[in-house]
Design goal:
heterodimer; A: 60s Ribosomal Protein L30, Chain: A; 7-stranded mixed β-sheet; 4-stranded mixed β-sheet; 9 helices; B: alpha/beta; Rossmann fold; 4-stranded parallel β-sheet; 13 strands; 36% helix
Chain lengths: 348, 374
Amino acid sequence: MTIKAYRRKLDTENGRVDLSHGAGGRAMAQLIADVFHDALDNDWLRQGNDQSLFDVVKGRMAMTTDAFVVSPLFFPGGDIGSLAVHGTVNDIAMSGAKPLYLSTSFIIEEGFPLSDLARIAQSMGAASRAAGVPVITGDTKVVERGKADGVFITTAGVGIVPEGLDLSGDKARPGDALLLSGSIGDHGVAVMSKRENLEFDCEIVSDSAPLHGLVAEMVAAAGASLRLMRGPTRGGLAATLNEIAQQSRVGFRIAESALPVKPEVAAACELLGLDPLNVANEGKLIAVVAPEAAPALLEAMRAHPLGRDAAIIGAAVEDERRFVQMTSSFGGARIVDWLAGEQLPRIC
Amino acid sequence: MKYVDEYRDGELARGMARTLATIAHSDRDYRFMEFCGGHTHAISRYGLEDLLPPNVRMIHGPGCPVCVLPIGRIDAAIALARNPKVTLCTYADLMRVPASGGMSLIKAKAAGADIRMVYSTLDAIRIAEAEPAREVAFFAIGFETTTPPTALAIRLAAQKKLSNFSVFCNHVLTPAAMRAILAGEGEGVEIDGFVGPSHVSAVIGVHPYRFVAEQFGKPIVISGFEPLDVMQSIVMLVRQLNEGRCEVENQYGRAVAPDGNLKAQAEVADIFELRESFEWRGLGEVPSSALHLRDAYAAYDAERRFGVETPSAKDNPACECGAILRGAKRPHDCKLFGTVCTPETPMGSCMVSSEGACAAQWTYRRFETQRIAS
């Protein structure tokens, strides 16, 4: 006679995460099986090992990691689960690489609703399947109430770089064209619109999206003429351009009139005293490319759904002071600076 | 964006620039002080000075509430926040203002003080309601624009019978500061006219500036904050001077009624009264230039409730914030500007707030003065 152990179903409707879910016992095994394996299901996870094995392909690999602490956890156009996939997929893709695998770890606060955890895991699974990049290993920890804020997620990823491609932030040269894949500020404004002390009605949804498909088209169109790509995430376009200016020892000149900004984003920024240039994006990229390759690259970007509103927004210039300057639509020039201080904490 | 783009139109701006170039007499200078930090910010952000003739020069005024707050008041706020019972609510602008001994609110917060950034006075009320065991004090600063929201919060706290809410009041008055600047004119400051406050005027109206024209003989044009507003106001000022007129004119008629917002004025008058004197950074002690709570509302006055004392504190001796706030010096006249003093590591308040003259110059226009890479 075999006795089947009674296994109480995890209450993902009304239950909450408690410390036993992180203690290494049956409760933890059940949480992982019922919430995470169910959502992220694939051959690697099903094997249930402490690590996952995969073959190494010939060539150069790219690796990255990113932590996600966004508040609120659910926002228009996404949530912390999908964001954790897109953020890492995009960081890999900015090297021109094809993302292959992701890992994830969850730090969960005691008392966190299991329904929210399941929703986040499902969203992560859906984003991973849509991107074609599986989450092949993971970890969960539970900390006492008050030691975290709901849930924090870290993802890491690896990818393979196409042969002959060598993108890097220090490769911009004076004269290179600067391209932007679409409107700026959508993610930051969408998240802010749901902050509890700031709530305002707006129809903006986060632009959070995986960009490796767009990147593949760009690599096909411009190849070795591409100098670098980068996502204008935290700190927005302003911070990204300043970073590259420092790394490449050049300046940038951009034209305000060329920058795509949605009217709702412009209005929200106006109201809150923000500059869309400083506001985070999660589904946009900038590319620096040799000037002669810019028209073909722009065409390839616009042919992709995530690059429909792409534009040439400026150029790298010689400037030993490494200033990013913008010609305003008004007529005068001004510096586009890093943001000082803490305008928008916990946006990703 | 409707109702905004119209006031940032480059074509219209170039038209006004041509008008200015035509009407400005080449044999004289026009030196105009824009009182408000909001104007300073717009002038720098839109590169407005690029469009002015060389003999029309803007002098940045003291209308940045963060900038004019003396260090002693920040020290007092930090001391208040260190009281373990107190939750200090503040606008984010104040967090990085340097206080005595290398301290600031953001550092005090990191060291354990319960300091929270809020977007409105009502957020502070909500915190007081949600956490009845905490003493919630709101760090109230600003000119006539931010005083009515503070008054509203006190009124609400009284209605809700909140016994754990109070206000550390630092509200100051624009006309008093203008008078102090004009009385001190000649000490390195020469002003031919004022671009007058926008939002402040929406509250107090047009009449409180009459003394500027009548006693001091300077024209003043109340101006909106958009770049075309400022351009048009400059054209109006040049015309007044050219025609020998000296008046209070209102360019910002779409928001400023001659009498201002009477309801807001009444609310403020009911809750606040004049302080005999108040210290301003840059201007020193200015009589009748600030407000505190009337005795009837003493229960909501953090200064009285917690016995807050304002220590006398000295600015960094090399910091020129004082002279810059009086219009006697420009940001890049200061030795610290852009060297040890930047928005990341501000030595003086003018480098902290986005409305401060130094921060505006550094953030938007330092290509004019900076030669080498930082």
